[in-house]
Design goal:
Low-confidence stretches of chain A: none
Shape of chain A: globular
Largest interface: A-B, 26 and 30 residues
Mean pLDDT of chain A: 93
Order of helices and strands of chain B: EEEEEEEEEEE
Oligomer: heterodimer
Distance between the termini of chain B: 36 Å
Radius of gyration of chain B: 13 Å
Largest sheet of chain A: 6 strands, mixed
Order of helices and strands of chain A: EEEEEEEEEEE
Number of strands of chain B: 11
Number of helices of chain A: 0
Structural class of chain B: mainly beta
Mean pLDDT of chain B: 93
Shape of chain B: globular
Radius of gyration of chain A: 13 Å
Chain lengths: ~110, ~120
Amino acid sequence: SQQGEEDPQALSIQEGENATMNCSYKTSINNLQWYRQNSGRGLVHLILIRSNEREKHSGRLRVTLDTSKKSSSLLITASRAADTASYFCATVISGNTGKLIFGQGTTLQVKP
Amino acid sequence: DTGVSQNPRHKITKRGQNVTFRCDPISEHNRLYWYRQTLGQGPEFLTYFQNEAQLEKSRLLSDRFSAERPKGSFSTLEIQRTEQGDSAMYLCASSPHGQGGQPQHFGDGTRLSIL
């Protein structure tokens, strides 16, 4: 079974706009990670945020984590057509082996 | 940069046949994971190795599935007596050992289609 739920399931925006994706999870975590997947390809790691962190930035990406609400958000600013992909949040449960438990993903389409 | 390599990329087989997939992780990574992904879903954990030891298996991994990592380098995932429900993308990932879970590097997967 999957840990998280992502919202929205699909998002379509114009190039230059910002995209926000949300993720909720059920159990205590060690860290939460976001991955991108282009069609027919493997997943690419974007950013990792630990349970004691509240916000993290990487380039045009901003991730927040609220452990009291068991939720996270990924913001992509100034989106580009090349950002078109599926985005997944994945949690590493406290005390675990490091296996990732994924949400169902958000499909982002950025129109040029 | 030699990333995670998976072979074959695509496998089409008849129901009831056995299939084997191979994963070559990043050389210095001692952790190796297998996941399965069906259309429109996120990947689901199957099993995990640290070096050559298989340390965890999901309940999804029925007795028809077996995975090995004999020398702590490459890994194989075998499915015996394949069923329609085995059709999926099988993803391999590797990571270095580290406290609390490290980012994982994924291969491009093997897409299995059962006729």
